[in-house]
Amino acid sequence: MIPFARNAIICGLSVGRNPQATNNWVRFAMYHDIPSRDRPGFERQLEYMKTIGEFVTVDDAVGLLEKGDPIDGRYICVTFDDGLEACHSNAFPILRRLGVPAVFFVVAEWVDQASRISAAGEREAKDRDSGGPRYLTWSQCRAMSEGGMTIGSHTYSHRNLSTLGDAEVRDELEKSKRIIESNLRMECRHFACPWGQPNEAFKPGRDPELARHLGYRSFFTTVRGRAKEGTSVFLLPREKVEPDWATYHLKYFFSL
User: Fold this and answer.
1) Strand residue runs (E) in 50-171
2) pLDDT bracket for residue 128 (50, 70, 90)
3) Burial of 218 by CB count in 10 Å (0-12 exposed, 13-18 middle, 19+ buried)?
4) pTM score
5) Which of 54, 66, 198, 237 could join 225 via S-S bond, C-beta 3.0 to 4.6 A?
6) Average pLDDT along the chain
7) pLDDT for position 98
8) Are 242 and 80 in contact (CB under 8 A)?
């Protein structure tokens, strides 16, 4: 579907929708990149989310669900996948200024590579020549962590877990956790699965339980929806959000 038609449909579907009419949930907004051109849109979205619910850290969001009690209110946790450099240069300043906590799920191998390039003074030249994406360095991850953000795991090398054997999945999750903890000197408690769709990207009967066994407190998917009383913290849903979306997109998806 072309973007214009999709936008028109969602705009129409948003009419009469009211996220504030729902209650007793935790929603996880999922972002990837925040290009410089989309900084105003991203800030506008955060301001709109403030009218819907209360922003909470990932630890607090997971804690609410771990209790198993009815959730009193509406809570929003902002998440980012892949660990793109724009998370530090564009998203982080806005989050910090607005007092919004967020969790950044990073791919340990990509952060290692970006850090080595940065340390060698070759990063700008390599990025300019390759035209590829730029990823966070460990120093940037530390700066965000010290600024109130959380760093989580997005595997070691961003492989599709559903295609891997048990030992390979364990290595992806364990190695990433260990490297993050070694570089940041703090526990890595949360995990987001690449691509995140059950069966297509991970095995629901194996991978969440392995994450729990390795010491993670959560396992995030990309299945849409709200988390509520009884939702497993090892199969958490998220709402994909693009920073250039108009407010009516959020109005629609956050009311479902």
Assistant:
1) 54-55, 74-82, 102-106, 150-153
2) very low
3) buried
4) 0.95
5) 237
6) 94
7) 98
8) no
Architecture of domain 18-253 in CATH? Answer: Alpha-Beta Barrel (3.20)
Q: Which regions of the chain does DSSP assign to beta strands (E)?
A: 25-31, 54-55, 74-82, 102-106, 150-153, 190-192, 218-220, 239-240
Chain centroid to Cα 196, Å, comes to 11
3-33 pLDDT, tens digit each? 788 999 999 999 999 999 989 999 999 999 9
63-86 tens-digit pLDDT: 999 998 899 999 999 999 999 999
Measured N-to-C along each axis, helices 108-119 and 138-146 cross at an angle, to the nearest 10 degrees, of 110
Contact status, residue 103 vs residue 151, Cβ threshold 8 Å: yes
Query: Around Cβ 202, how many Cβ atoms within 10 Å?
Result: 26
CA distance 174 to 89: 28
Distance CA 49, CA 76 (A): 8
Retrieve residue 59's tokens. 């630890």
Residue with tokens 């903890």: 181
> 10 Å Cβ neighbour count for 205?
9
Please tell me the distance from the alpha carbon of residue 221 to that of residue 242, in angstroms, as a whole number. Answer: 17
Q: Which residue ranges make up each domain of the chain?
A: 18-253
